[in-house]
Amino acid sequence: MIGITKARIEEEMKNIFIVTKGFQDAKEKLQKTGVVVIKGNTGDGKTTIAMQLLHWLMEEQPSRQPLQLHDITDFDLAPPKTQLITFVDNMFGEKDVYDRDVAEWNKRIKSVLPALCGNKQKQANFLVKSIRNEVFNSLKRDSLENVFVGSNTVDISSKDYKVEKEKMELLDLYKPLHGDFSWRDNEKKAIVLCEPGIGFPQCCKLFRDFPELQKDRVKFFEKPYYFLNGVLSKLGECSALLFLFLNGGKIRSKDLDPNGDKVNKTLLEESFAIGSMHVGDSKIASTDFNQKIGYVQKSLDSFSGFLVAKDTCRLSGDFVYSFYHYSVQETVSLLYQHTTPIGFIQNCPRTCLYNLTTSKTSSHRMVLLPDHYSYMYDRVLREFDSTDPRDYSIDYLRVWTNDQFMKGFMSWLDDKSLDKLDVVNKACSAHATKCALYLMSKGIIPDNFATFWSLIEKYSYCEGGFVGDVDVLKEIFPYLNDEMKLPLFNEACDCSDECVLYLLSKGVQPGKGTDLPSLFESYPYRQDDHDNNFSVFQAVVGYVNDEVKVELLDYAFDFYSPGYVFYLLRQGVKPSKFTSLWSFIEEDNDSCYYDEWERWDMLVNIYFMVDDDIKSNLWKQACSYGPMDPVLKLLKQNLGTCIDIDAFWSGLQGVNQEEILMEVVVNLDDQMKLELLHKACSTQTEECVLECLLADDVKCDENTPFCVVKRKCMNVLKNIVNDLTDDIKLFLLNVACYIGYEECVSYLLSGDVECKENAPFCVVKRGSVNVLRSINKDLRDSIKPVLLNLACYTGSEECVLFLLSESVEPETITPFYSVKGGNVNVLRKLLEYDITLSTRAYKSNNSSYHVCNINVLHEACLLEKEEMVAVLCDTCNILAHGTDELKRSSLQHVAMTGNFQIFQIVERSVMKSLSRDENKHMCESVNGRVVHKMCVCAKYMERLVDVCGWTVLHESCVRENKELCLYLCQSYPALTAVVDKDGRHCLHYLAEWMSVETFTDCETQVKQYLESTGRRYDITTILDNNGRTVLHEACMSGHMELCLHFCQSYPELTAVVDKYGGHCLHYIAMSRTSNVEMFNECETHEKQYLESTGRKHDITTILDKQGKTVLDKAKYQEGVNNHLYDHLLDEFLSCI
């Protein structure tokens, strides 16, 4: 065997060898570890490098002998420590990796490898192996010890070893020997750039040895079918590659889930049927679906980096399988064509149909025979139904140009009794232009314009959208009726100038629905008269009416298209009031191509081409959008008589107003000057501007002085006051008082203007105490108490103190105003006077509570004025015992608001007033908390009920005041046993409003109190006068959280009915929440409780004393509980 190996090496050495990077790295790894694995694709030169390595070692170490092993079992024959160079070529076989081979390797490697290599470099045997990529990838799942690892492996198919210089040398090395063949430099570069990257050395040899391949030159390397065909024939099993091909050359790894719905079972069966036929093995073809899917994924993984690329999708992150090079896909396509032409017609990807032809034009194309036509007709119709709008591959089929094929197609349609109109419509939608035109020539015309347009419209990847094909339009135009031509014209306006021009040349005129501005939307800058788009625009203008021309002019201004603008103006088109004329001079116009002076010249030119109404509109736009310089220029064009004051004043903001006004005002008439004065008076304007306007003899009208006073312009007021009537002066005084303009008030009063009734109220409301001092001497005594009340109401402390210092006596109602005002200093000051604090107010100023007949402490509690409450309790604690018309005291009013701090203030005051002797209180202390059990405080709280029998605890429960509820339960435990006049316990109210946590906390206090008095707590016995439990209340209010808590914690409640026979499920059905989930949960717990007691649940037998079911109760809600009613109706029907 050693002799045979030497002979092979000698034969290999006769060939010229290029020292490559792969050879150098393999030599380095062999020297370092004694083992090297040369990995690569078929034809990459693995064996050649291995032979060169053996020859190099023999030269370096003559004592070494080469030995090639052909079978794994031959390792048993290799003696250890004999300085052999062992070589295994194409390890694990030529066809595929078999489990037996891998098992044999694993069985020997632990003992053979040390024996082969030894422990010392001089004694060690060397091991050189070559292995194909697909075989190596298949081995990844097996344990092959430490041989096939990165430190021992050289992958000559990787990018690191695809050196451009080496490829150039290979091309020269394997140049054809006969003739004067030579490569051009550009051809070499093209080959290096486009070759598939699979077996390049072998392709070079094939090109040298086969003259018929040399005719193709570069094309052979682009698509080396001859080489790839040989590669695929060695694989043995091509089912996975064929399945990849039939799926369009791309498959996501997650789509190969056998439990999913992404796998096309028809294509899978076809792949395995043809793949097994290729190798004459039916074992794989007979496996089940899951095994086939697993085999496909396993095979694709093994081909990864060789025939298949496995990449990661950037969007989804999934692995995607595709062909390593398009030439691999075309080779698989050719093999499939040759194996089953009919299968290829039926199943190949749409893009591969282009390879079908009716005459022999290329060795790589399949010729359709007449026997194949019917299969092709059927495939074409399928493609008509599924074509992507942006896919035009169906139109490029070569069969459309074959007259025999098309005649056969017509006959086939007749034989199948298919609707030819439907076929031509689908052909148009699929962009099968040649097919559609043939059918039209036979009198089969589409019946709507949209079908025609889908034939004309083509997707352009360069334009990034759909465009019209004028050549197609010319061919189909004879088949259009008049009704279709205008809609086609409208569609063409959006995407094809050529189509528009052609239709115009054929007499098609714009009409309803035509989007004419779209003809120049994409061309916002300079337009040349010779420009094709401008020619389209000119042609269109000749066909449209005046109204449309104005619309076009508006768009031309909007898109800043001067060429279009001046063309339309020269045609006599007049702008409308909506035309954006000022767009030509805007400095911030992003689409403006011209500089400022060019824009101004354009504006002047436009100005002389429009009438007076448009000039006025231009002025308004200039004021609104432009700087003031062009505005002044327009004024010099005698436009001052038609200016818009609002727009002009808006344009003045942020500039030197006084200077501009001096120039403008001389051009205005009296009415405009007056309007300008009013505008200046009513805005944030410097007084010098007003003086500038008045200096030009602007005559004031009756509105002017009010604007002047409002702007606090005293110098202007002094200039105009002599022209004012007494009534206006009085009104001005009131206005000055209202805004607190003290200087103006003093000035007017100094001019003998009398202070009337409205003025003082304005002064007090504004809190202007200095103005109040000015007018005080003119006020009647009868009005001063009212002013005091107003000052208290507004909280104006300075005004209150001033009026009190002027001996104004507070009224009995005055404290109420002070409480509303909220100024505690004012209240303290009032309490220094002899005021009857027991005075009652009709109702509270807090609109949230309807409370009548209240004292001042009640009001302070309801308005939550904490500091005022403390002041009133300290001053007159008897107020805390007073009640309103419903017998509610201050404590109950505080319970309404839930303000815990105020409650404690009032509580301390009340308890302090009950007995001055602290020993008689008998209050207890529990864990540092004061608890009122048998003391006078507890008895007071129990008796403190309103007309409904509500205690403060009831009130706090109803108002959802959690903190106060818990405080009262803990501090006044006897309150937890008090029921109101309807027999309702505090827990009834808690069940309506509070959370589960608050309910359970309060319930604990109720339970503790009952047990402390020798009674037992039973929640089923807590019933109101109607027999309702807490569960009934929670169900009625739709409180799902508490409802479920009761059902889970107290299941016996689900069986309790009220005195009218009302069940908890009745109450849920009557609730306006229509909560199906809540009903189902409660029903489940009710059913479980009944079954635990030996009873059976039947929802149809849950009746109240009137015989009403839960379905009846839900129905009575008049549509509010429709969801629950529908649910119950289904449940009742299922029971029936």
Automatic annotation (TrEMBL):
Pfam family, one: nSTAND3
Keywords annotated in UniProt: ANK repeat, Repeat
Annotated signal peptide: none
Alphabetized SUPFAM superfamilies for the sequence: Ankyrin repeat
InterPro entries, per database record: Ankyrin_rpt (IPR002110), Ankyrin_rpt-contain_sf (IPR036770), nSTAND3 (IPR049050)
Domain Novel STAND NTPase: 17-168
Domain of life: Eukaryota
UniProt protein name: Ankyrin repeat, PH and SEC7 domain containing protein secG
Natural source organism: Mizuhopecten yessoensis
